[in-house]
Every structure is written in structure tokens, then in C-alpha cells.
Amino acid sequence: MINAADFKKWLDVFGVDTGGGGGGGGTVSTGTINEMAYYAASGDTVSGLATANNATLITSAAGVPSLSSTLPSAVQNNITELGIINENTFFSANGTGNRWILLDSPAGGALAMQAGAGTAAGGGAITCYTASHATRPGWIASAISSGSGGKFAVLSGGPAGTEQFTVDETGNAVANGSLTAGASSTILNNQNAGTELSITNSTNGTAALAGVTFSNNTSSSNFRLYSTGYTGVSGWANRWVMSQSSSIANGILIRSPAGGIQLTADGSTNAANLLVNASGDTVLSGSLSAAGGLVSGDSGSSAGININYSNSVNGSNYTVTKLVAAAAKATVLLVTVPAGEYFIGIECFVVNSRALFSDVGTSLLEKQYFSIGRNGSGTDVVVDGSMGSGFIATSTTAGGSLSATSGAMTIERNAAEANTAPQVVKITINPQVTASGTGTAVIKSDLIIIGSLTGFSIA
Questions:
Q1: Long-range contacts of range 18-27, CB-CB < 8 Å, 24 or more positions apart?
Q2: Which residues lie below 8 Å from residue 223, measured CB to CB, with a gap of 6+?
């Protein structure tokens, strides 16, 4: 039992009115150490409230006090602010269900989490925007701390794992592995500037390249740019290569509905070195390589040119058809003979007219034979224009004045090349011309070459 003075102190602690300083009566039940006195029932008896370790004083839904380490649900649901939490936070498992962090009555706000003080440079952050947000409805945004040089990353192997995908604060992305798309993927940027896909490999290694590979169920094809130090395939260093696997049986198809297809080898202009127009006509501005030989136009030629080539154990055969339109002497063929052993026989059949599409009375038919020989390196070529009699047949009706040199065909060295170097022989013709106009000649040349085709060419 306690004495009256101590009892009075307890009454004062609990705010019990004792009648304005007058004495009161009542009973204080026996208690144990650390218990708190309280009225367990209406009346004048004070009892001890059972103590508990690491607990706080709470009341039940009926107002009954107790000491507990768990806050009542009503208290938990009405916490408006937390101070600094100096411990890890855990959520208990919910079987296969979820645990939620919810934003109550979201309106147009957002839920943000930052490893910092809520500033642009405070640290990395994740923000979830509500569906009714004014500028980012329904967004999830990951923010990199301003000026930190940090990255957004997807890691494998946990928080300290390997970077598989990263994006820095300037927008540069790095990914390991493959990108799997749906039916199609689009790179879209509507702007008055270039929108490009750039693939860069700046390594100057023996296996270094940058490229794109396409694969179907059986085959593959690729576009690749090889480094200057590449050694994997001879001749591929510092070269852009389009290649395909041997299982692509139907080759490559290029379709252009209008405007044709143009190839330009001059990097400074758009001049068409090869043009296939919408009608299927092929136009060359340079040379055409054909089975070891080279055929090209000259300054007096039109676009019309044709070559047929065949090869046998006895020699290589070329047939070249050419249209020459000129007002003076023009080159028909340029034959480059390497420094080696060669014999070349040439037959030229010519339809020579002063005016294209004129009547037969202005035409001339010619057939001439030529030969070119060389006895190896250290010797000059020998040319001959009298292998056969040939013929010249003019029309019986002159139809107008003729050039004084009409019909003449010649063969000669083109220049004084060294006898150890390739030497060029040219065959020329003077087309029939009107007194003030241009003549036209169609020449069909058959060539038989005995000798190596390496370095040999016809132009």
C-alpha cells in the first residue's frame, strides 16, 4: 500500500479532481515495477497497466489503453509526415499478390522518389505521373542527376551487376545484345534537319567493321564498312561491301518505279556514270568492263555500243558494234596490247553515210582487214592494214558533195610508249560528211586475240 501523500501525487498526475484541495478517498491496487496506474473500471480504484518492452501507449477502438509495439490501423492510415528513417524498410510478402505504394486522391500530381534532396542535382530519381497530369499523363520518368555524368542503366546480376543498357544525360544510348521488334519499328523525328541511323565502330582493328545484317529463315545479307586495318578478306579493308550468303538463290533485285537507277563514282558531283532509265535503256558515261576486255565510247561516239565475247582454246573473240557521228576523223577502236606475245586479227565492216536516215544514194559500204602483232616484252607492236583486199562500194547516185577524205580507214600507234610497257593501237575513220554537216558511220568489228587477256583491253 502507498501512503496518502504518494497517492495524492498520482491523482495529480492523472488530473483527478480531489475537490479543491480537500482530501479524497480511494484505493490504489498493488502493482509491479514499471507499471502505469490507470482506472481499469469506473470508481475510485487505480490499477497497474501491464508494461511491455519497446512499446508505446495506445488505445483500442473502445478506448482501452495498452502498451503495444504496433500502432492501431487508424493511426497508421493518418500519418501525414515522416521524419528521417534510419533503417531499411521492408514489406511483408503477400503470397502471389501485390504490395502497393499508392498516391491517395491523385488529381494531377505525381509520386516521386529521389536519392537526394528533391533538387535537379540532388541525385537519381523516378517519378510516376498520374493519369490526369497536365503535361505527362501516365508517364514514368527516370531522371539523371544534373551535371553528375550519370546514366540510366539496366543491369544484370543485381544492383552491382553488369550494364546491359545505358542512356546518359545527353541521350546517348549503349546496348548489349539484340533488339527484338514487333511487326515493324520506325525511327521518327519530324524536324527540318536530318533524321539518321548511325552505326559507328572507330576501332582500326584487323577484324573491325560497322554494318547491318538481314536474315530470313535460311539466308543472310549485309551492308558493312570495313576498317582500314581489316585483314579478314583480301581487298575489303577501308571498303563498303554489300554481300549475301550463297543460299540466296534469286540474287538481288533493285526496283525503281520512276526516274531510273543511277550509279555515280564521282564523289563530288551527281553525274551519272551508269544510268538505267525507266525505259530500260542503259547509258554509260565512262567505260564498260566485259570478260577481260574494256569497251568505251570516244568523243565522237553516240550512246549506242555493243560487245559480244567468246573464248576458246584457239583464241578469244570479240565483236564490237559502234555508232560514230563526226564531222572529221574519229577513232573507232583503241586496242591496248600488254608487253607480251600477241597476234590480233581485226575485220571491220562499215556502213558510212553523210546524214543519218538519209536515202541509200548517200551511203558507202566498206570492209577492211587489220592485224596487230607483238613478240614479247622489249619489242614494239607491229601493225598492218593490208591483210586482205577488202572492198569499198559507193552508191551510184552521189546525192551531193562529198568530203575529199571520205571512207578512209587507218591503223597506227597511238603514242610512243616504251617497248617494255603496254602499247596502244588505234583504228580511225573519216565518216562521209556533207559540205557543212556531220557524217555517220556504223562499224561492226570482229577481233580474234591470241595471247593473255590480263591487261588487254578494247576501247
A1: none
A2: 211, 212, 240, 241, 242
d(CA 365, CA 367): 7
Longest dimension (CA), the chain: 163
Per-residue buried b or exposed e for 26-42, using 16+ beta carbons within 10 Å of the residue's own CB: eebeebeeeebbeeeee
Q: Work out the number of other CB atoms within 10 angstroms of the CB of residue 153.
A: 17
pTM over 0.85: no
**Residue bearing the bigger pLDDT, 207 or 292:** 207
Residue-wise pLDDT for 162-185, tens only, equals 999 999 988 888 888 887 777 777
* Helix extents (H) in 395-448: none
Nearest by Cα to 369 from 391, 355, 387, 342: 387
Model confidence at 75: pLDDT above 80 = yes
Mean pLDDT of 7-21: 65
Task: Count other Cβ atoms within 10 Å, centred on residue 334.
Answer: 18
If one compares 206 and 74, the residue with the highest pLDDT of the two is 206
Whole-angstrom distance, CA of residue 81 vs CA of residue 186: 46
The mean pLDDT of the chain is 80
Reported as a single tens digit per residue, the pLDDT across 414-431 is 888 999 999 999 888 877
**Cα–Cα distance, 253 to 174 (Å, whole number):** 34
Q: Are 354 and 400 a contacting pair, CB within 8 Å?
A: yes
User: Is the CB of residue 354 less than 8 Å from the CB of residue 362?
Assistant: yes
Cβ neighbors of 123 (< 8 A, separation 6 or more) are 114, 115, 116, 117, 145, 148
C-alpha cell at 168: 546518359
Annotated domain spans of the chain: 1-53, 254-285, 287-458
Torsion of CA 397, 402, 407, 408, to 10 degrees: 150
Q: What's the confidence (pLDDT) of residue 314?
A: 54
Q: How many CA atoms lie within 13 A of 113 on its CB side?
A: 6
- Return d(Cα 67, Cα 71) in angstroms, integer: 10
CB 410 within 8 A of CB 385: yes
Predicted confidence (pLDDT) per residue in 281-322, tens digit = 777 776 555 444 444 444 333 334 455 555 554 567 888 888
Neighbours of 155 (CB within 10 A): 13
